[in-house]
Write a structure and sequence with these properties.
Layout: H1 25-29, E1 56-64, E2 75-79, E3 100-104, E4 111-117, E5 128-135, E6 138-147, H2 152-157, H3 159-162, E7 175-176, E8 181-183, E9 186-187
Parallel strand pairs: 1-8, 1-9
Antiparallel strand pairs: 1-4, 2-3, 2-5, 5-6, 7-8
Amino acid sequence: MERDTLEPSENQLFETASQTAGPYLHIGLAPNSIGLPSAGKEPRNKSCPQNQKTDSIQIVGTVWDGRKEPVKDAMLEAWQPDLGEISADSGIIDGEFERWHRVVTDFRNGNWSFNTCYPRTFGNFAPSISFWLVARGINIGLHTRMYFPENTKANALDPVLNSVAVERRNTLIAHQVGRLGYRFDIVLQGDNETVFFDV
């Protein structure tokens, strides 16, 4: 009997079939968001603790694809500058406030939101929040940054914002909603595409 030519020999391997990357983000990384039990501690989107000398704010947004449709299976991670003090003895930062957040978009409408402390200015950098985004079909995470519209002077001095073409900077500046709320939509492609950084 002749050997099937498609069967790999000891010295011959074939490529595996291509497959989309997801949508498994909610299941694997934020199971509580869809009612599944978590194997470990999931990041909680806690409000700013009362002992912090800054306002608690809410940030909301939607991830949009190139067809101007909401991306309903995206996950975002957000980082922001530390607000606490570092102990000279231990080097440990006050742990009451989680400076890292993980949020997933709502399966119904693609919206996301979290509560946090208003970030501080450090050095020449304006108050900002950094985002990392992944979704089905995005194999390499996208990095972007959100700035606050009221910080005109600080934004004008920020070296990261100044590295972006003037006509594109508006994609990195949130819109204020009420006194303590901000909206930051992320556009993956097309008109008004959000600026993403090669990190």
